Amino acid sequence: MTDDATPHGDYSGDSDFDRDAAPRVDPDETIDLLQGLVRIPSPYFEEAEISEFVYDWLDARGHDPEYHHVSEPDITEYEGDNVVARLAGSDPDAPTLLLNAHMDTVKLVEDWDEDPCSGRIEDGKLYGQGACDMKGGLAAVMTAFDALADCDLAGDVLLTAVVDEEGPYGLGTDRLIRDGVVDDCDAAIVTEPGPILAQEDIENPALLLGARGRYFYDIEVRGQAAHGSKPDTGVNAVVEAGELAAALDDLDVGDHPKLGTGSTCPLKIEGGSQTLSVPERARLMVDRHVVVGETLEDARADAERVVEELGLGSEVDVGFREAPDEGIRYGPYVTDEDHSLVSALTESTRAVAGVDPTYGYFSSVGDFNYLGDRAGLPTVIVGPDGENIHAAGEFVFTDDVVDVADIVVDAAARFLD
C-alpha cells in the first residue's frame, strides 16, 4: 500500500454475498492442475514453460492474464515473466486482496530414484520436485481465483504467479513491488508450505502470521602475505576469517515473542591459493536471520563490534551480499492476529476443516517478507503441507491442496464482502 493510500483492512461493505454459499473448488480439477504444474521442470531462472502454462490456463478460463516482465541484467542476466490476473470487485472503496505464489523450484535434485517431475500420486501424496514448495500452493490459488470469479465480490482479487522465489534475490515479487503492481493491495495471502517450515512443530490447518528476516554478511578480511615457512612474519587472512566466523557463530542475537530468536550461520570462507604463501585475502559469508527490531545497520554494528573485540591483525570490511537494488532485503514482519484477513481465514478454516487453525510463524524467508515488510501488507501464509522439500522424494498432501484452495476462496469472499 502506498503511503497516501487509504487502508481498507476493516472494511465492511454492503455486498449481498452469502458467506454460507461460498463456492468450493473442484478437487479433481485442482489435482489435475497440480500434476500438470509438477510435470513441467521449472528450476529458478528456467520458468518460461511454466509461465506460459499458467498464462494459458487462466486465459482459457477468460481471466485476461498478463505477462509482467522481470529483467535483471547486471548480476544474473535474468529475463523472465510473472503472470498477473485481476478480478474486479463492485465497490472501488473495498479492499484489494493479493494472492501470491511462485512458479519456480530449486534446481532438480540428482538423488531421485524416479522422474523428479513425475507427479505420481500414491496414498494421498503427490510426488515431484516443487510439489510442496510450492506448486501445491500455486495450484490452490489458481483454482481458488477461478472459483472466486463466480462470486459477487465488493473488492478486487489480484493473482500473481511469480518467478525466481527460490533464486538468490526473489526477482519476481521484487519486481512486482518496484513496478507498483501491488500498490493498491491491502493484504496478502501467500500459499507457501507453512507447517514444515514453521518455528514450532505444528500441523495443518495453520496460519503463519509472520517470518524472521535475513541478512547476508559478505566480509572481506585483508591480512599480510609472507613466506609459508615463516607464517609469523605475515597475517593469515584465512585463519583470522575462521576466528571471526567462530565469533559470529556465537553472536548474541535478538529475540521476539512471536518470531523467536534470531540466528547466525557461517556459510563459506574463501581465500588463499599459492603454495608456501601466507594468504593475504579471505572472504567470509555468514547467514543472519533477524527478528522484528533488528535492522540492517544493527547487524552491521554487531559484526563490527565483534571484529573490534577480537583485535585481529587483519583489516576487515563488514558488508552485505551484492544485490541488484539496495532495497532487496528480507526484512522480518508480524501480522496482527486481530487483522480482518486473519479473522476471515480463521472463520474459513472452521467452515472448511471444521476446526480452529493453529497460528504459527515462519522460520526462514521468502516472497512473503517482501510483501509483509517492504510492501507493508498484512500477510498470511496458508499452504499445503508435505515432506522432503528441496530434496529427493518431495511430496505434497493432495487433501491439503484442496483444503487450502477452499479456505482461500471462503476467506477472500469474507474479506471482500
TrEMBL record:
It comes from the Archaea. Its cofactor is Zn(2+). Transmembrane segments: none annotated. The keyword Metal-binding applies. The keyword Hydrolase applies. Keywords: Hydrolase, Metal-binding, Zinc. Residues 16-26 have a biased composition (Basic and acidic residues). One of its GO terms (molecular function) is metal ion binding. Residues 1-26 are annotated as: Disordered. Residues 210-311 form the Peptidase M20 dimerisation domain. Coiled coil: none annotated. Belongs to the peptidase M20A family. This is M20 family metallopeptidase. The lineage of its organism: Archaea, Methanobacteriati, Methanobacteriota, Stenosarchaea group, Halobacteria.
